[in-house]
Amino acid sequence: MRRVVGIIFIIIINICFTSNFSLAKLSFNNEEAVKGISALFMVNNPFACVDGDFCLLDSENAQVEPIVVSGRTLIPVRFLAENFGFKVEWNAAKYTATISGYDKTIRLKPGSYEIKVNGSQMMLDVMPEIIQNRVYVPLRVICEIIDKKVSYKSGVILVTDSDKSIEDYSDKEFAQIYFSFVREKIIGERNIKPITKYEAATYFVNHILEYYNKSIPNMDLYFFPDYRDIPESSHYHCHLSVYLNLLKVEKGNFEPFRTLSDYEIEEALSRFEELLKNQPDLDFVNAKDMKKDLLSSINDVIKNETDIVRVSVYDFATGTTVSYNGQERFYPASLSKIVNLLCFFEEVQKGNFSLSSVYTLKQSDKYIRSTKVAGTGNLQYQANGTKYTYEDILSRMISLSDNVASNIIFDALGRERLDAFCEMYGLKDTRIYKKFYDGDKNFPSNYSTADDLTRMLVLLENRLSVEDNLSILGIEYMKETVNKDRIALYAPEDVVIANKVGFISRLSGDMALVYFPDREPIALTIVVEDDNLKAINQEKANELIGTLSREIIDYFRKENGPSLYIDGNLIQDRIGLRFINGRPYIKEHSMLEGYLTEYKIIGKEKYISLDSLAKDNNCTYLLKEYPQKAVCITNSTIP
After folding, report:
1. What does the DSSP 8-state code read for residue 444?
2. pTM of the model
3. Residue 24 is inside which H or E element, if any?
4. Residue among 135, 164, 127, 218 nearest 39 (CA)
């Protein structure tokens, strides 16, 4: 029934448009009738306003509208000419349009700069074109030829017989004209097809910026958990549409592809009309102080490097990753030991292993066939028969990067378990085929990527593969890592580094969880490898990793955690906010106690799901970036 009503409404609208257009043409059959005529147009809008009445430029095609080409406005010639008392004829054989009236005859050809006026040749600076199967002409030049006045303001064009300029309209009158054009177009489009939220955001925001002649930097005003769904070309329009209160956000998501209801469109139009009457704050005075793009900072450090540099950074406070060559596969050396740790911990949690179980060191642990397992660690030097708990073996594998310990864990798990773990947790570019010092050419070399290694750290820190107690233990192993000469090299004293290094003759790498005093941590992996797979200068590579890490750590440590607001009231200056599986969680606050919410225990802290809080307690939330970072919970039942 609703669809039928909609179709009837569209038919009525079309009849009205057609009638208006026809009446306009009929009333201009003689020259006397057109004295004092004025017509208003808007760039990229299919409507015109002729003597106060709105109509389509082309009743058969709502895509016909004024456009700008090479800085000149082009308009359909037939509508312009006929509404000012001229006749238009099209000669398909000669591919020529003829405009005649008022003792003037104008002939022009689409695709040609030449135009003839009463037989005299002139040259146009923009040539006429065929667009939407209609002849478009440069507006100002044609109007000058037919003795009409043209004035322009914020995309609105006035063509008139009189000396009146568009600047003569009062601010209130011009705002109403502008609003009417915008309303006509969006209502017309809504009657043809549904309008998505991001389309409405783009449309309204572009008009606000046009109206106030503003150019806004591409800045983040909010953090939408579903930001990946927003089309890149509409990203900042979506931010500004929420900032200007044109469109609403529920449960933190922008929902760019959701179809807007008639009520939401009317509400946005009402707000849009208010914004035309009362100019909003669009200065964003802090925009000039915005941080430099992190990738640009990384590029500045490594622009003259000849070695291959791979960087992957994950920010727990926003759930975003910055990657530089982060998807390139390479042999990860001892960095791969983190996946051994995670997989073993998961088996402990399942009850298949116990950390307190005792393992007896064997001669075979120190050799692979006839090759001695050398390199880092000290189990290779310990007496056969020495007993160790699995907890001790794991600690040595990470803190001392013990290769014998890593091989013991590999044997305990088996390759199939490691493969299954990588598949389950999205480590699609990581495979552990063999143990350290295994030269068997029947198996390929182990491989991973910087992005996958960072992903392993995220699994550990966000307690995604194992619970809090095991994650804490693994992070403690990393904090006790002996080698602190890479990521930790230039780290500030108030930053804690839990890391795992890896190196061979051609490669140096480090991966770390970086903990700040006033914000959520980051996960960071940096690998430097010789371009020709030859030996590198380890000291120089470590220095580069340290320099890069300092740049990255400084980039993030300037940001504090967001403030917490409930129903507009400041509750806490800084609240922990982190993303887990792409969704926002905040540290529990006393104001939120007693409410049913999903939560995660991280380092003995309770993080509650904002989605769950909103769903179960009749409230919404928004993550703001401007003018300061904030978690805003509104319409809540929270006292």
Report:
1. P
2. 0.77
3. helix 2-26
4. 164
